[in-house]
Amino acid sequence: MLAIAAALNFTTRRKVLVFSETKAIVQALPAESLAANLVEPVQGSAGCRLATKEFLHYLLLSADNQKCLLIIDEVMTSRLDPNGCSAATGIKADLMSLGKYVGDGMTFGAFGGRRDIMEVFDPEISGLQSTS
């Protein structure tokens, strides 16, 4: 997933925290090793489990404290609000992934985020490689 690659590149760290026992995992890892917290606001393949507002806020605060990125996977939920499902909880991710509806139903996805992170993909900045 390019969003994870962007987080690893931007932070120069090697570990990514995924939806799970977040508090225990964050405490077990050295703070400087975590590149990103990645979460789906609604886990589709896990039985449509909704992440609580408190859980999402914990991940945001954790990302701020750990100086890592918060990536919200809105593939299933981004069509619910122009700013994604997580916007309803007041969460603004560093990176957000979007679903195939952005390609009018074709197998297509996209991600975007903070300007300083996304600049790595700008083909007009010298020294960067852009591919299609």
TrEMBL record:
MF (Gene Ontology): pyridoxal phosphate binding; transaminase activity
PANTHER family the record matches: GLUTAMATE-1-SEMIALDEHYDE 2,1-AMINOMUTASE (PTHR43713), GLUTAMATE-1-SEMIALDEHYDE 2,1-AMINOMUTASE 1, CHLOROPLASTIC-RELATED (PTHR43713:SF3)
This protein's name: Ornithine aminotransferase
Upper lineage: Eukaryota, Fungi, Dikarya, Ascomycota, Pezizomycotina
Cofactors, names only: pyridoxal 5'-phosphate
Species whose genome carries this gene: Clonostachys chloroleuca
Source superkingdom: Eukaryota
Xref: Pfam families: Aminotran_3
